[in-house]
Design brief:
single chain, 12 helices, about 425 residues
Length: about 425
């Protein structure tokens, strides 16, 4: 037996250290048995999971979007509103029968979609919300990316109007407060890929100044808490939570200050795009954000008014959503088909792009498309399409659940499928076992 070579062992140990430290170093294929053993032991980690929630606000055309209730399972006929997704039918499922039972406002198709909250759950007459499913996912999946999550909006001037409802995006933080979003592809491009304008030293100084202000505020608030009644104490605690969230954002910003942004895998978008072209670009930028691992969680509250305008449809979105027949119904059906075409293109891109393990992004991503509103003023069995293999869902099926199954059961199943351990979300009553592959 040949004596061991100390130099070779030291070299292999050094390589092992570099790998466990997370350094990305391409090593040549070496022939020694020692290196082969190390290579087997140091198998790459599985690719990160990702989640994106696409909210459409005004619902769909129920006569031509939902598969027949008489055709459960995988052999259902794809209805007209979903026909553009035919090439992906094995990559998505439709979930029927789910609702947010505490939602009573038909014109708020996005506000409680991802939260399932009781509007008056805090005992007052003021609007109340709770954390959205995307932000629960963000707490677990967003620790190691430059952006914990991305909140995207369409460019509609009335985006918080009668279709989508209250809120600054689809996302609500741990306090149930609305989170602002990016409203156009150009702004999103620069957020993801443009270098920061200020020199590093000035950005570091600005962060230090903010931190010193927060430290001073924290000390004063601690003194103020003494002697408060319960209601004031709760209000102050909510304020403290806001301070803590700012501190976390600052810590993240500090971590990435000296790390250059990735090179943009696409050209800067032209300004002023609206409707169909706007949605296409937002989808392309979402794929780019996932490909560069800039984020792993995103929401997109989609435009409706500008979408219709870009299709030369002269029916107002609110009128369209109250269709019965004729021009309004035709507008609603055309909207469904175009949204399905755009979604099919998004799934094409996710399927085509590869993650660090060489698999398609669709293998590690879960995509949700839907609304809290079914159609007109109907809140039961809201449209819910789930796609991608990132959450371990059963795909290719028309899943019929018992009437008024909590929509939050779907979110709970999704979050657990992403590896997040939690007992419940919103008004969930359990996981949807029919949805698990």
């Amino acid at each position: 037996m040949k004596p061991e070579n100390p130099a070779m062992n030291a070299s292999l140990s050094r390589r092992k250290f570099l790998r466990t430290a997370g350094t990305l170093l391409a090593l040549p294929a070496l022939e020694s048995a020692g290196f082969r053993r190390f290579a087997r032991a140091a198998a790459p980690l599985p690719p990160p999971r990702r989640a994106v929630f696409l909210g459409i606000g005004y619902g769909v055309t129920q006569e031509t979007w939902f598969p027949s209730l008489e055709e459960p399972g995988s052999s259902y006929v794809l209805p007209e509103g979903l026909k553009p997704l035919e090439r992906h039918r094995k990559a998505f499922s439709i979930v029927q029968g789910v609702s947010n039972k505490l939602s009573a406002e038909a014109h708020w198709g996005s506000t409680y979609w991802l939260t399932g909250a009781n509007r008056y759950g805090d005992g007052s007459s003021s609007m109340h919300n709770s954390i959205s499913a995307d932000q629960v996912a963000t707490a677990a999946l967003g620790r190691d990316t430059r952006f914990a999550s991305l909140q995207l909006n369409g460019s509609d001037p009335d985006l918080a109007g009668p279709g989508h409802g209250a809120g600054l995006s689809l996302a609500w933080d741990v306090r149930g407060k609305p989170m602002a979003g990016v409203n156009n592809p150009v702004a999103l491009f620069h957020k993801l890929f443009s270098a920061d304008g200020l020199p590093l030293e000035r950005r570091q100084a600005a962060l230090r100044e903010k931190r010193s202000v927060l430290d001073a505020v924290g000390e004063e608030l601690s003194d103020l808490k003494r002697g408060l009644n319960r209601r004031d104490h709760d209000k102050l605690e909510e304020y403290f939570q806001g301070i803590r969230e700012i501190e976390l954002r600052m810590a993240r910003e500090e971590k990435w200050l000296a790390v250059p942004k990735p090179a943009a895998p696409l050209r800067e978008p032209a300004p002023g795009l609206e409707g169909v072209e706007e949605v296409k670009l937002m989808y392309d930028l979402l794929v780019a954000a996932f490909k560069t691992d800039s984020t792993r969680v995103a929401t997109y509250r989609q435009p409706i008014s500008n979408l219709l305008k870009s299709l030369s449809i002269k029916v107002a979105p609110h009128d369209m959503s109250h269709y019965s027949a004729g021009q309004r119904m035709e507008a609603s059906q055309r909207r469904d088909q175009v949204q399905s075409e755009l979604l099919a293109g998004f799934l094409d891109r996710l399927e085509a792009e590869k993650d660090t393990a060489g698999n398609s992004l669709l293998d590690s991503t879960v995509v949700v498309f839907g609304s809290n509103l079914r159609t007109v003023h109907t809140l039961e069995s809201c449209p819910t399409l789930v796609a991608g293999r990132g959450a371990g869902f059963k795909l290719g099926h028309n899943l019929l659940l018992p009437r008024n199954t909590p929509l939050c059961n779907v979110w709970l199943t999704l979050l657990r499928g992403l590896g997040i351990e939690l007992e419940r979300h919103g008004d969930s009553s359990g996981v949807v076992r029919e949805l698990v592959a």
